[in-house]
UniProtKB/TrEMBL annotation:
It comes from Trichogramma kaykai. The keyword Transferase does not apply. CDD domains: Ribosomal_L18_L5e. Keywords: Mitochondrion, Ribonucleoprotein, Ribosomal protein. It is found in: Mitochondrion. This is Large ribosomal subunit protein uL18m.
Length: 192
């Protein structure tokens, strides 16, 4: 490829430029490195993921007051909207709002479906939502949908489970008092 009087050639992991006078100049070089050497010498690893405490079940769940309506104690919750023509499912974080949304209104999904409100549409939305959840690092969500209410919801929930999403969140870790008979296993301990 010619560019400004230079001939660019790519070899392996570097790009070289050769001028018309025959001089070779290395423009860019990249190497693929592994983190194994860095991790061997590392004494401390700091995870800067803001949702790491939720993954370790240490973060607080919004419990509210004892007179409040139940169903608000979650980190991520599965919400479903059904209209006459479309079906939409989304994962909502208690603090940051909707994080993942999949709908039969999405052009790419709509073009693959025969109808946007039949059982196959529900199962495909469940499959796509499970895949997007895993890509975003969400492995468990709070779900209060009754799968026995219809075959469509049963297909949707079944695809979510097949996709690897747990439909109930693990309990929040609470620090044990010295007088407690049963103590929870600490989430940061490794078990064999």
């Amino acid at each position: 490829m010619m560019m400004n009087g230079l001939r660019l050639t790519a070899t392996g992991s570097s790009i070289a430029a050769k001028s018309l006078h025959g001089n070779v100049v290395v423009v860019a070089s990249r190497q693929v490195r592994s983190n194994a050497a860095v991790l061997e010498r590392c004494t401390e690893i700091r995870n800067r993921n803001p949702r790491n405490l939720e993954l370790m079940t240490i973060a607080r769940k919004p419990k509210g007051y004892h007179l409040d309506k139940k169903g608000h104690e979650f980190w991520n919750k599965l919400f479903v909207r059904v209209s006459a023509r479309h079906f939409e499912a989304e994962i909502v974080h208690y603090k940051h709002g909707p994080t993942i949304t999949v709908s039969t209104r999405d052009w790419a999904l709509k073009k693959q479906l025969y109808k946007t409100n039949d059982i196959s549409a529900y199962s495909n939305v469940g499959r796509m939502l499970a895949q997007k959840c895993l890509e975003a690092g969400i492995t468990s969500v709070y779900c209060d949908i009754d799968e026995n209410s219809s075959q469509k919801f049963a297909a949707f929930i079944d695809e979510m489970k097949k996709g690897g999403i747990a439909l109930e969140e693990p309990p929040q870790y609470t620090h044990a008092y010295p007088w407690d008979a049963k103590r929870m296993v600490k989430p940061w301990t490794l078990e064999n």
